[in-house]
Amino acid sequence: MAITHVPVMPGEVLEALNIKDSGIYVDATVGLGGHAELILNNAKVGALIGIDRDEAAIESARERLKDFTNVYFAKESFSNIKAAVSSLGYGAVDGILLDIGVSTMQLKADGRGFSFMKDEPLDMRMDKSQKLSAKEVVNSYHEKDLADLIFVFGEERFSRRIAKAIVNERRKKRIETCSELAAIIENSLKGRGRIHPATKTFQALRIEVNKELDELSAGISSGADMLNPGGRLCVLSYHSLEDRIVKNAFKKLANDGIFHIITRKPLVASRQEIRSNPPSRSAKLRVAERI
Q1: Most buried residue among 187, 203, 244, 252 by CB atoms closer than 10 A?
Q2: 162 closest CA partner among 204, 122, 212
């Protein structure tokens, strides 16, 4: 079954990029190519560069955008935007989009190990060539370290109870699958709220495995470095930890005289979009312009 993906806040992203004819633009988390296709269909850009560290995502985007002749791809982390763009023969660019959310493909595709709804090996690596996986984190981290990362990255108030349950279970046998871990968490919390009890722990593990917050800080810094004057950096984030990093990084760059902040408060999706595309409900878009 083909996995479809609807880009989040399409109108707001297009307006925020303030696209110029013949400009060079970067979708630094190209994923399934939704935002890239939106840009190419609505503007006469000189070139669009799609970056992703997930090889499967690059291949999906390449297929989706095969009819465009001004698209180029690089398999790279978005923290290395500058090196990726340089490897394609480009220098400064006129706009960069960072959509930090986990992609639909990664959640729904079999064998990626991101979802607590699936009975498959725990993995969560966006780049399959890296060594650290969620299975290694769950089975090797000390109980305190597990509790701390679940508390900080998942904002889970029952982190210590969950970490204790994980350590107790792995003394009996290694925890191998997403469904095993989800059941351990569910049993340790004895009840359900509005969301599945494993939601926050799985988020925390994904952030840890892929070093997402470190990537975000480095990506903003690298992106700011390579924008032409008037070029814009647009960041879509999906939880408070990410948004706080974006907000503080933009403030620092503004204080250093590098950025003019376009959005004092983050833009959010309309009620109509949230109804038709529920993943947009937690999206926050912040925009800054290179001085």
Answers
A1: 203
A2: 204
- Angstrom CA distances, 247 to 81, 132, 243, 264, stand at 20, 29, 6, 9
Render pLDDT for 164-221 as a digit per residue (tens, 0 to 9). Answer: 999 999 999 999 999 999 999 999 997 667 789 999 999 999 999 999 999 999 999 9
**Given CA atoms 92, 94, 98, 103 in this order, what sign does their dihedral have?**
negative
What does R_g of the chain's alpha carbons equal in angstroms?
19
Question: End-to-end distance of the chain based on CA atoms, in angstroms?
Answer: 46
SS3 288: strand
User: How far is C-alpha 74 from the geometric centre of its chain's CA atoms?
Assistant: 17
pLDDT digits (tens, 9 = 90+) for 14-73: 999 999 999 999 999 999 999 999 999 998 999 999 999 999 899 999 999 999 999 999
Name residue, tokens 């939704």: 34
Provide the 3-class DSSP secondary structure of residue 131.
Answer: coil
Q: How far is the CA of 186 from the CAs of 34, 173, 181, 197, in angstroms?
A: 34, 18, 9, 6
Count the helices and strands in the chain (H runs, E runs): 13, 7
- CA pair distance 146, 125, nearest whole angstrom: 18
Instruction: State the Cα–Cα distance between residues 187 and 40, nearest whole angstrom.
Output: 48
The answer to whether the beta carbons of residues 140 and 149 sit under 8 Å apart is no
DSSP type of residue 190: T
C-alpha span between 187 and 45 (Å, rounded): 53
Contact 137, 163 (CB under 8 A): no
